[in-house]
Amino acid sequence: MRLYSLSILFKGDPRVRLLKAAYDVSPFNFFQRASVQEFMTFTSQLIVERSALGSRASVKEQEYLCHVYVRSDGLAGVVIADTEYPQRVCFTLLDKVLDEFSREVSRMDWPSGSPTTISYAALDGYLSKYQVR
Questions:
Q1: How far apart are the C-alpha atoms of 94 and 68, rounded to whole Å?
Q2: Residues 84-98: pLDDT tens digits?
Q3: Neighbouring C-alpha atoms within 13 Å toward the C-beta of 98
Q4: Cα Rg for the chain, rounded, in angstroms?
Q5: Which is it for the CA torsion 81, 39, 111, 15, positive or negative?
Q6: What is the pLDDT of residue 21?
Q7: What contacts 74, CB < 8 A, 6 or more positions away?
Q8: How far is residue 40 from each of residues 9, 44, 52, 88, 105, measured CA to CA in Å?
Q9: Which residues, listed in sequence order, are joined to residue 7 by a DSSP beta bridge?
Q10: Residues with Cβ < 8 Å from 128, sequence gap 6 or more?
Q11: At 25, which CATH number?
Q12: pTM for the predicted model, two decimal places
């Protein structure tokens, strides 16, 4: 059981913006890591784009399960995990991360933010803490 990605996005108009993300691509071959990370970023944005405000879903993409939660205020989170990782735990993690993010990062920064401009350092810690070794 493994988590590969934890992302926070903003579903704005006209497009979805990646605000912050953490990845664990260590199980992949060194030469594949960049393309795997790019795939995870693209897939997260696409799933949020296609999800309604206030919805939760789990989507199978290749050999991964992507768990998405889009809040009614447009803030969204995506966890990409293997198919064995418990769905309930993923949604609990997303609830926790999005609540904390919305308290620490001003809502004014969401529509124009990017991974380089948003200051929120907890994602790597959460990705590591929720890993099942």
A1: 8
A2: 999 999 999 999 999
A3: 23
A4: 14
A5: negative
A6: 96
A7: 10, 11, 12, 53, 110
A8: 13, 6, 20, 21, 23
A9: 21, 78
A10: 24
A11: 3.30.450.50
A12: 0.92
What range defines the domain where residue 48 resides? 3-130
What per-residue confidence (pLDDT) applies to 10?
A: 96
3's tokens: 């988590």
Torsion over CA of 10, 105, 25 and 47, rounded to 10 degrees? -10
What is the C-alpha end-to-end distance of the chain, expressed in Å?
8
Phi/psi at 96 (nearest 5 deg)? Answer: -60, -50
SS3 per residue for 2-23: CEEEEEEEEECCCCEEEEEEEE
Contacts (Cβ under 8 Å, ≥6 apart) of 65: 58, 59, 80, 81, 82, 83, 85, 87, 90
How many distinct structural domains can be found in the chain?
Answer: 1
CA distance 48 to 76: 7
